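BUG: 3D viewer hangs when loading the predicted structure for this chain

Environment: internal workstation, default settings.
Expected: structure renders.
Actual: progress bar stalls at 90%.

Input used:
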Amino acid sequence: MPGKSLTREWPLAASLVTTLLYLLFGKGWLADLSSPLWFSLVTLWLFAVMGVSAFAVVRHAECLAERLGEPFGTLILTLAITGMEVMMIAAVMYAGKGENATLARDAMLAVVMIVLNGMTGLALIVGGLRYHEQTYNLQGASAFLAVILPLSVLGLILPSYTVSAPGPVLSTAQAIFLIVMSVVLYGVFLAIQTLRHRDYFIAPAVQKPPESHVAAFTAHYEIRGVAYHALLLVAYVLPFVVLSKQIAMPIDHAIRTLHAPVALGGFLVSVLVLSPESLGATRAALANQLQRSVNILLGSVLASISLTIPAVLAIGFIIDKNVVLGLDPINSILLMLTLILSTITFASPRTNVLLGAVHVLMFCAYIMFMFER
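Structure tokens produced before the viewer hung:
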């Protein structure tokens, strides 16, 4: 059994070896990315290693979820994913030459669109096809959206209309207020989620899936002690931080060389980090654990917005770089439509395939307007 456990952690060895190699030789390897072959090799290598590391983080977070129970399990998962996202954004901001002032905004919009439209739509479709209708705790979803809506509008739409600072940026006083507001709101929400109203985020007894579904969901995991999984989760996250700085240069180079939309950088960051979380939410829906899917999906959006905004604004102060948060009119409309649609979707305790299809089509619209303005 111990040998099998060590064999299963091969992504950690790959991550550590890659991190060591890039610490020693990365500066030279990334100095000249003009060769398409070399650029492709370096980029795919980094994406692959970071991808398997992210999946390993999710695996250990889900094992902790089984040990600790809800809502602590999905909270650990969303905080781990959001932490990796913030680290990648910070790395790209530091590595950029000034073109990355919009990266945080684009990444946060991408998180909202990927999670609330792509991931939510997929989870509702696969769950609806298998079970026709699925149920969850409506009060928990309402609590998530009650914080997501104001922070999304204040952080991503309102800066385009303020006049205290030129451009879609916040003045110093406005930025400080938004930092404090985001942290306080998220702190209050965590108190509600983990202390006063934990039952909002747990499926009611009448809605809990059969034990066979729960067993199938965790059958391929070897669940051990809390300390074991927590230690390995941290061990996977730390190399991820170092590699985030390395992958910033290929992303920046690709956008400049291919004249791709600037928003593509934030989208790629979000896709890389959210892909394992998407798998977790989809698997939970297939196991008829929609409450877990809702906690993962809405929790990741809330954590991303409420923690990324303070982090990037603080980084902007430190490196003396303007952080553009305000969206353009097209993306503002897409964001508002997504928030309204999500409010409608989670206004009923039952979901079906139709709601999932609408969310997926909204995600396709976001992709289309990214490239075709």
